[in-house]
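Reopening this one. Same input as before:
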Amino acid sequence: MFASSLKINSKSALIHFTVGVIFVLYFSVSYFLLWWEFKPLKVSVIEPLISAVVMTICCYLIFSSMKFYNPSKGQYFKIIGFCLVLTIISLGVSIFTLYQFFDTPSIAHYYQKLPYKFIINFLLLACIMIINIFWNVQEEAIENDRRKLESERLVREAELYNLRQQLQPHFLFNSLNSIIALIGAKPELAKKMTFQLSDFLRGTMRKDDKQLIPLLDEIKHLELYLEIEKVRFGHRLQTSFDYDDEVLQAKVPCMIIQPLMENAIKHGLYNIIGNVDIITEISLENNMLTIEITNPYDTDQFYNKKGTGFGLSSIQRRLFLIYSRTDLLSIRKTENQFSAIIKIPQHD
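Same output, byte for byte:
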């Protein structure tokens, strides 16, 4: 609201300044030409003053009318006609007013100079009209660019929101199925898992309106997710984090790590018998935050032949929408280990 008000006030001030300059220049030139023609006789200031005031009023009429009308390409003849009408009006008003102050010889002299005044007034009003049209066109182009950027931003945010929401049902259904399975055999664990799921979803909803959050908040949210998964898988799931405290204030897109962790759990625990250790390494160097999650996997299992899957592709899409880069997600495979690496630029 303040920026819009400032813009309007600045434009109004510029209009007043422009009209003021036109008044001074028109009066000065008119008076100088009269003085040059009649010197050493004394020249009255009334005639140039009346002409300057009339032209000033015509300029204000142009600025006022062009606030509500911007001609298209096929309507420029209307602009020429409008300038001709204003020119005739300006000369007519000037002649009518001069009849109240000057004698017949002075008015006859004015009629002698009338063709020149007509040309000068027409050219001046046409210039004012053209400047105003270009001004309006530029403002319209700026406004269209602003609306385009705003529209693109809304579309990008909607797609980001949609990508995030698609990640939730899969995890939610798995958690609810696990709770149902635990209700009969281990009701306390089912109760604990229900509370953990509630805390996790509550934290997710709180972050819906935040694009970037501190890494510390992301890790806390990830720990809630891991606690739920550990209830599901018991002692088989082991996780470890390796990072320095200095990286905790780095900014990351909210819930960017969870799909990586979910992917690691899926390909690590579902296909391997025994305990599984998932390692998360985080480092910050040259304003680039690197997050690497490593899990064991069996190359002979079916799950590992399905490609990167929706989780990784959604992360890559989110990173592109936020940072406009396609090189921020990569994977690395060794004989029995799978690593997913994401890089998050840290802008000053």
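So the earlier flakiness isn't reproducible anymore. For the record, The two ends are 28 Å apart (CA to CA).
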